[in-house]
TrEMBL record:
Gene3D superfamilies: MFS general substrate transporter like domains
SUPFAM superfamilies the record matches: MFS general substrate transporter
Species of origin: Candidatus Nitrosotenuis uzonensis
Keyword list, A-Z: Membrane, Transmembrane, Transmembrane helix
Annotated protein name in UniProt: Major facilitator superfamily (MFS) profile domain-containing protein
Length: 426
């Protein structure tokens, strides 16, 4: 039987059902209310924007008060209220506000989970318990998509918000079992744990959770600023820019995906089923990714990860529209699976490579800059998608996204070249 001190870990499953469900159903709900790609783009970008701010806010609260249980209860209560509010609303501007709230409060569970794992288990078991939270997160994601596929086939999409509310309520009940820990670990300490940071950077869906071990100041971006001036002081600046471009281009695809699927005439239950297939593939690849990286190395694995990522975008942009249903559905599945294949390998390899590149003693600062660059990339990708698609179309949006990822690959090659020349110089 699970010790009482460890039972808190089970909240990960129901809250991930709610979180993944909301991430999928809110864009579908906006389209149901008469919105298009522009409205979906705004909903997603405000969610990511407040999530980035929330990472800073909740991190400061946790560092100062260590009130992990209170933070979870407040955050989960607000998510539950947001789900109920969504059930009763019929106006897109209100959905904008609720999406901002869900971004602000959903992100709180990330740093709390990291701290609870590290405070309730000895450090030689951190890897084991981070792996367990990842498994629970994965099953939560699968559960959300499976429930959504069945529920939306028989019922209205609006009622799915009540499923999310019930899941959040279960998470609240489980969170009440969290007891006071005898020692505290601040976020700066998490920055020194490769287990915790790998969990952060390699598992959350589409990177809509951000972690700022240290809130970066303008001076902390010096390596990027110097590169933009045509000089190089440390190759890590190229890695930051690589991640910015990677998440910018990737989130252009993911922001456009749901409206694109609805434009093809797919039912909500079919959309949920497609995301279920994608989540299953992502779960399988995440278990295989460490073996792939162990055999090929981080640098080579990251380079190879671009091939399925860019291919997936191009398949959506060109091949899907060349065929009629149900044949085009096959290419949709291929596109979505290729995307998560590339993401799983890239994010896992990137998190390990980041640890190897960061100078000792500067983990908090550099991880803060990296979080900031990822946040700006995700936010910028979401916001620009609506403008580009509205002006040109989905094919052009996917084509531009593939060019952005190609730019990310070019920057990564520059990173490798300067890193190699630095070794040679030594």
């Amino acid at each position: 039987m699970e010790p009482i001190s460890k039972r808190w870990i089970w909240f990960v499953f129901p809250i991930n059902i709610a979180a993944e469900g909301l991430h999928t159903v809110i864009p579908l709900f906006v389209i149901r209310l008469g919105g298009g790609i522009s409205e979906v783009s705004v909903v997603i970008s405000v969610h990511y924007g407040t999530a980035a701010l929330g990472s800073i806010f909740w991190g400061k609260i946790l560092d100062k008060y260590h009130a992990k249980k209170a933070v979870l209860l407040v955050a989960f209560s607000m998510i539950l209220l947001s789900c109920v509010w969504l059930y009763y609303t019929d106006q897109i501007p209100i959905v904008y506000a609720i999406s901002a709230l869900t971004g602000l409060f959903l992100v709180a569970r990330g740093p709390v989970t990291q701290m609870l794992v590290m405070e309730t288990s000895p450090n030689n078991q951190w890897s084991k318990f981070f792996a367990r939270t990842s498994i629970l997160s994965t099953f939560g994601s699968l559960g959300a998509m499976l429930i959504g596929a069945v529920w939306s086939f028989y019922f209205d999409t609006r009622q799915y918000f009540l499923i999310c509310a019930i899941s959040t309520g279960i998470a609240i009940v489980i969170s009440l079992q969290i007891s006071k820990t005898h020692f505290h670990i601040e976020r700066s300490m998490i920055a020194h744990s490769i287990h915790g940071m790998q969990h952060i950077f390699s598992h959350f869906r589409f990177h809509n959770h951000f972690v700022f071990p240290k809130v970066p100041e303008l001076y902390d971006f010096k390596h990027i600023i110097i590169i933009l001036k045509g000089k190089v002081s440390h190759e890590i600046g190229f890695l930051f820019l690589t991640n910015f471009m990677f998440y910018f281009g990737s989130n252009m695809y993911f922001t456009a995906l749901t409206p694109f699927l609805k434009q093809l005439g797919l039912a909500d239950s079919t959309v949920f089923t497609l995301y279920l297939i994608q989540t299953c593939v992502m779960a399988m690849i995440f278990f295989l990714a460490p073996k792939i990286i162990g055999r090929l190395g981080e640098e080579r694995s990251m380079i190879l990860a671009y091939a399925p990522r860019i291919s997936g975008i191009l398949v959506a942009g060109f091949l899907v529209n060349m065929f009629l249903m149900p044949n085009s559905l096959i290419f949709v599945i291929i596109s979505m699976c290729l995307m998560v294949l590339g993401f799983s390998v890239y994010s896992t390899a990137n998190s390990v490579l980041l640890f190897k590149t960061i100078p000792k003693g500067f983990e908090g600062t550099y991880l803060g800059v990296n979080s900031s660059m990822i946040g700006m990339g995700v936010f910028g990708g979401a916001l620009s998608t609506g403008i580009i698609t509205k002006s040109f179309g989905y094919t052009e949006t996917f084509l531009i996204a593939s060019f952005v990822l190609a730019g990310s690959l070019f920057l990564f090659r520059l990173y490798l070249r300067h890193r190699l020349s630095g070794r040679t110089g030594n």
